[in-house]
Amino acid sequence: MKHLSVQHLLGIKYLNLQDIDLLFETANHFKEVINRPIKKVPSLRDITIANLFFENSTRTKLSFELAEKRLSADVINFSASQSSVKKGETLIDTVNNILSMKVDIVVMRHPNVGAGVFLSKHIDAKIINAGDGAHEHPTQALLDSYSIKENLGSVKGKKVVIVGDILHSRVALSNIYALQLQGAKVMVCGPTTLIPKHITSLGVLVETNLKKALQWCDVANVLRVQHERMDINYFPSIREYTQLFGINRELLDSLGKEIVIMHPGPINRGVEITSDVADSKQSIILNQVENGVAIRMAVIYLLAQQIKPNS
Ligand code: NCD
């Protein structure tokens, strides 16, 4: 039985290539399971998982919850907007109270960078980072790479451009780590104000001309402008952003080749991508969502193996 090299999933930064291979192999198995008439396996019948969401989420929260239920785990859900966090309780107190109910795994989304790492040092449960501020979103990057591999046969040697608000995106950073670990070439493209100054130190290419970036790549992963993380104006208007960095059919047709279009969601239709492109054959956005469940089942299953060494 192969094992992950890590005790928690805090970021792609902490994984090695064998971990990614093992996660993908396990996800292949679960993808087959969730396409069966009976989509559930009894693997985690005695495991309890708490989903703690201190920030809004639709897809990630539902995807984790479904993954946990498909594995037959007991699941409790917590969202900060309806909790005592609003009454001034600290993170450790909130989580310790939940853990005294005998929780084995905590899936956490939190607005603060490093919240997962902090928690892993203070509590006795497996931690899965479901997004910490503008830092990492490891399961999203895993499902993105898995979807590229499924579509193009491999990640190694592929050219991937991440388009849009790189500065505020945890999806971007986790994708950069995951893609490079697997031998892909990565470029970022967006307004200079939304590209971190030192990003080239990560070994990525930077391009501010969208057409040139798309001509270079095999895959474009398109990001939403994260208005909720912006305290100033990073570009003059949404209309100008769309004109310079929006992906539309005409632009794609002018490339003379077909690239794969991805988006982590939620999409702002008509801003970073037009509806016809998002819904076209070259878009794998819904495959990403489907693969998200299989990937999250794999992450949870492999971490749970470390709790139950004899299973
Ligand atoms: C992303 C996130 O929350 O970081 N969404 C997601 O998890 N699918 C990206 C975003 O919010 O734009």
What portion of the residues fall into strands of 2 or more residues? Answer: 5-15%
The helix-and-strand class reads alpha/beta
Distance between the termini: 10 Å
Number of helical elements: 11
Major β-sheet profile: 5 strands, parallel
Query: Average pLDDT, to the nearest integer?
Result: 94
Shape assignment = globular
Helices and strands, in order, run as: HEHEHEHEHEHEEHEHHEHH
The share of residues in helices is: 25-40%
Overall number of strands: 9
Task: Give the radius of gyration.
Answer: 19 Å
Unreliable residue stretches: none
Bound molecules: N-carbamoyl-L-aspartate
Strand order of the largest sheet: 7-6-5-8-9
In words, what does this structure look like?
- This protein is an alpha/beta fold.
- It has eleven helices and nine strands.
- The strands form two sheets. It has a five-stranded parallel sheet.
- Helix 1 (17-34) packs across helix 11 (285-307).
- Residues 59-60, 131, 137, 140, 170-171, 224, 226, 264-265 line the site of N-carbamoyl-L-aspartate (NCD).
